[in-house]
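queue> pop job 88
queue> type: inverse folding (structure -> sequence)
queue> payload:
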């Protein structure tokens, strides 16, 4: 999920009120031409961890953080990327035992961030990487597409849209190998009339989504035009890369990935078994589709279960896809961990609508997904002493990087699975990575290292 900052452009096309879109989003070796995602990161010398020694630390400290490293369309991307991947990264300064990073969409950033910790795990995926379980809600497998997303659109309409962007919204004006510079503002300011027919005509929405998937994820215009007009493969932003990374200060073994069914942006779950002395804990790091995508990219996928393509709430196509992802995660945890102890974290893009610690209010966002996870057998929602949910995706008044956002969401609720005395096991919970960084400026002031704040918690080692 992610902040694509498409709202300004799409609202100019549809005359809607200004709004920020919240989306979406293991080290070497691509899974080209289909097949399984390829492993990456240092998972402990192939899983050989040597003789164990005791139970390890008394507590396990966990961070979950959406880095929002989405590329130049994101706010202050270059500065934030340099800080987060640099030698003095606040991530490296964290005392977390385990860390789940979301929103790391480029393999170069995944590799740099992974190199900063003793152990890491991520997978390289592509637009051809298949879903682990492709079944829809009714158990059927969607047929493979037979035509490119823009095949049914008049060629002149598609050509006009790309020509406008190539001439007016380009790092190298007039050069089809150029990319969209900075934010998506130029699309609404200079190419609304060219893109509008693709968005406003429902039968052309798949073409519109394909163009957005490519153009706003730092891919060359000619690459996007070729793919959308001649490649029947369902499009994914960022080349279909899964934007997840596990970081650990203890050895990782048995690492695996579950590629979730998703539309426009790759979603999934990473798994590793962390070894604390003679004790192991299963660790899951995941991301789901954002229901807020519907306002900017009408749903055209196979997992919407007949829901409204532009509705953000319950019953909408994106919400139905998200619920299916949650069901698949619950099933995989049961299959993978059985009776083992597990920590399950991620950016679910599901938020409760409740009061928060400072007296504010969190906006409800597809809460049915959190309800499903919270009620799963063996699952316990993490809640530290005196903790009340707070926004991790906060309005502009709290985090200046979220320009135009007026509501707050808590989207990173963690869970424990088969954990001894789970209701009292969490000793501390707080937000992290909140402070303005002097190396990151947005407007005239220093800003945090991400539009999303991180969440940290400490839990008693189940071996003690």
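queue> result:
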């Amino acid at each position: 999920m992610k902040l694509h900052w498409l709202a300004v452009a799409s609202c100019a096309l549809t005359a809607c009120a200004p709004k920020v879109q919240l989306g979406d989003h293991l080290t070497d070796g691509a899974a080209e031409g289909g097949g399984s995602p390829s492993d990456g990161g240092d998972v402990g010398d192939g899983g050989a961890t040597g003789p164990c020694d005791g139970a390890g630390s008394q507590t396990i400290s966990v961070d979950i953080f959406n880095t929002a490293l989405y590329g130049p369309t994101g706010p202050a991307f270059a500065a934030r990327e340099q800080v987060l991947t640099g030698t003095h990264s606040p991530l490296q300064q964290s005392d977390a035992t385990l860390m789940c990073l979301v929103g790391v969409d480029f393999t170069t950033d995944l590799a740099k961030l992974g190199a900063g910790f003793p152990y890491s795990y991520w997978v390289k995926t592509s637009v051809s990487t298949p879903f682990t379980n492709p079944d829809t809600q009714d158990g059927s497998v969607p047929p493979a597409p037979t035509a490119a997303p823009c095949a049914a659109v008049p060629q002149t309409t598609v050509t006009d849209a790309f020509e406008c962007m190539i001439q007016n919204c380009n790092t190298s004006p007039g050069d089809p190998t150029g990319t969209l510079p900075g934010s998506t503002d130029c699309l609404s300011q200079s190419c609304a009339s060219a893109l509008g027919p693709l968005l406003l005509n429902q039968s052309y929405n798949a073409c519109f989504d394909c163009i957005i998937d490519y153009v706003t994820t730092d891919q060359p215009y000619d690459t996007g035009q070729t793919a959308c007009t001649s490649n029947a493969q369902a499009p994914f932003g960022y080349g279909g890369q899964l934007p997840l990374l596990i970081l650990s200060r203890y050895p990782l073994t048995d690492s695996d990935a579950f590629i979730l069914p998703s539309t426009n942006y790759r979603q999934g779950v990473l798994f590793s078994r962390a070894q604390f002395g003679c004790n192991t804990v299963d660790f899951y790091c995941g991301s789901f589709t954002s229901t807020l995508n519907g306002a900017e990219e009408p749903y055209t996928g196979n997992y919407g279960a007949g829901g409204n393509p532009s509705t953000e709430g319950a019953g909408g196509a994106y919400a139905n896809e998200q619920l299916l992802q949650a069901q698949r995660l619950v099933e995989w945890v049961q299959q993978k961990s059985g009776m083992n102890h597990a920590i399950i974290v991620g950016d679910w893009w599901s938020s409760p609508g409740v009061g928060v610690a400072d007296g504010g209010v969190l906006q409800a966002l597809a809460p049915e997904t959190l309800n499903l996870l919270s009620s799963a057998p063996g699952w316990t929602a993490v809640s530290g002493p005196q903790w009340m949910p707070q926004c991790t995706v906060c309005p502009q008044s709290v985090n200046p990087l979220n320009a135009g956002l007026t509501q707050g969401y808590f989207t990173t609720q963690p869970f424990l699975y088969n954990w001894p005395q789970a209701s009292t096991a969490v000793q501390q919970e707080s937000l992290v990575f909140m402070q303005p960084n002097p190396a990151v400026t947005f407007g005239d002031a220093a800003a945090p290292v991400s539009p999303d704040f991180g969440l940290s918690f400490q839990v008693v080692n189940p071996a003690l």
